Amino acid sequence: MRCPFCGHHDTQVKDSRPAEDGGSIRRRRQCPSCGARFTTFERVQLRDLHVIKSDGKREAFERDKLMKSVLLATQKRSIDRDRIEQMVSGIVRRLESGGDPDVPSKQIGRLVMDGLRALDTVAYVRYASVYKDFREVEDFATFIKGERLMGPARSAPEAEPSPDEDGA
Predict the structure, then answer these.
(1) Beta bridge partners of residue 59, listed in sequence order
(2) Contact 61/107 with Cβ under 8 angstroms?
(3) What domain range includes position 1?
(4) For the chain, how many structural domains are there in total?
(5) Within a 10 A sphere around the Cβ of 116, how many other Cβ atoms?
(6) Tens-digit pLDDT profile for the chain (168 aa)?
(7) In terms of domains, do 64 and 123 share one?
(8) Res 167: pLDDT
(9) pLDDT number for residue 140
(10) Predicted local distance difference test score (pLDDT) of residue 123
(11) DSSP of 38-88, one letter per residue?
(12) Looking at the structure, do residues 39 and 51 belong to the same domain, yes or no?
């Protein structure tokens, strides 16, 4: 493994253990040339996946790209990073264990939507706004109503009659 600081080609593994998600190995490395320490993660990759975009283009699947889109949707939400990692790892495992190495982008989008809906409804709506290409505020309202994400409409509490000043 090349050192990200000085570019030296040979680094030493100082510590190795399973990562929190259980699907990867966390390795602590040190460069013998500059002495810098850094962490790497190893994940099992069952097969090379390719994404088929809606315009027909075919490109290599990138887990990091998927993770970035999920992190963007969950930004400023109090969601544990490990739960997000688990969700993304689950999606990748489902894709890799599927029969076809060519996966339509719409299938990936549906899997992300399902995962986010279970994780956080605000993140779910954020992701949906990009995935479904919302253009107007009404698109949000229609989507939220259609998905039944809002509880029953509450009416304003009725105003209590004010007592007469003379006490009558």
Answers:
(1) 51
(2) no
(3) 1-44
(4) 2
(5) 24
(6) 899 999 999 999 999 998 766 677 889 999 999 999 999 988 776 678 999 999 999 999 999 999 999 999 999 999 999 899 999 989 998 998 888 899 999 999 999 999 999 999 999 999 988 888 888 888 888 888 888 765 544 333 444 444 444 444
(7) yes
(8) 47
(9) 82
(10) 94
(11) EEEEEE---S--EEE-TTS-EEE--HHHHHHHHHHHTTTS---HHHHHHHH
(12) no
Question: What's the Cα-to-Cα distance from 123 to each of 23, 34, 67, rounded to whole Å?
Answer: 24, 42, 13
3-state secondary structure 96-155: HHCCCCEEEHHHHHHHHHHHHHHHCHHHHHHHHHHHCCCCCHHHHHHHHHHHCCCCCCCC
Length of the chain: 168
**Amino acid, res. 143:** F
Same domain, 86 and 122: yes
Residue 134 lies in a domain: yes
* In a domain? residue 163: no
Distance CA 37, CA 16 (A): 13
Q: In this structure, is residue 153 part of a structural domain?
A: no
Strand 24-30 relative to strand 37-43: parallel, antiparallel, unpaired?
A: antiparallel
Q: What is the pTM of this model?
A: 0.65
> Residue 94 corresponds to which amino acid?
R
Look at residue 87 and tell me if it is in a domain.
yes
Q: Are residues 86 and 123 in the same domain?
A: yes
**In terms of domains, do 138 and 64 share one?**
yes
